[in-house]
TrEMBL record:
Name of the protein in question: HMG-box (High mobility group) DNA-binding family protein
Gene Ontology cellular-component annotations: nucleus
Gene Ontology biological process: polar nucleus fusion
Gene3D superfamilies according to UniProt: High mobility group box domain
Keywords: DNA-binding
Record organism: Artemisia annua (Sweet wormwood)
GO-annotated molecular function: DNA binding
Amino acid sequence: MAYQTRSRKRVNALRRGPDGSAFQTCESCGVSVAVALVDMHECECDMKKGVKKMKAEKVEDVIWDAEKFKDQPRSEFRFFMESFMKDCDSQNFFEMDREGFKTWKNMSSEEKLYYQLKAKKVDDDHNEKLLKESEIQMYSYVDEEADSAEVGKFDKNIGSYENDTYDSDYDSDQEDDRLT
């Protein structure tokens, strides 16, 4: 057995520009692009010319229900901070936040009672709305398992199966005779 001669693999040389360089400048945008990738190059100018913006159709403005966000449950601290921010003279948010937290920490339980009651009222109203919403969804239940149009076509006694009762006088021997 003789070894076969190995043929050499051909390697394609890199493509070069007219000046011998591996890069070529684009005529329209002036960017230096590899010669091998020139055919895939897309200029920014071409992209701007080719892309046309679609005019958006006017959609009715979405009106957010203010009650959805206004009446969401919040903590008593949040109610306190909202009122504190209105009354505070400082322009720096971090200072206001720090002062508000210190004030809240040093407040007595009688002073916090107003904010606790306010938070409880909003929380109860929110829970009541959720309960009403869930009741509406329960009552608007739609039977998704609609009967096919061919239900009564083949089995004429389809309604009578519901009222059938088990016949205790049925003899199991008769069933064995029928099966054989």
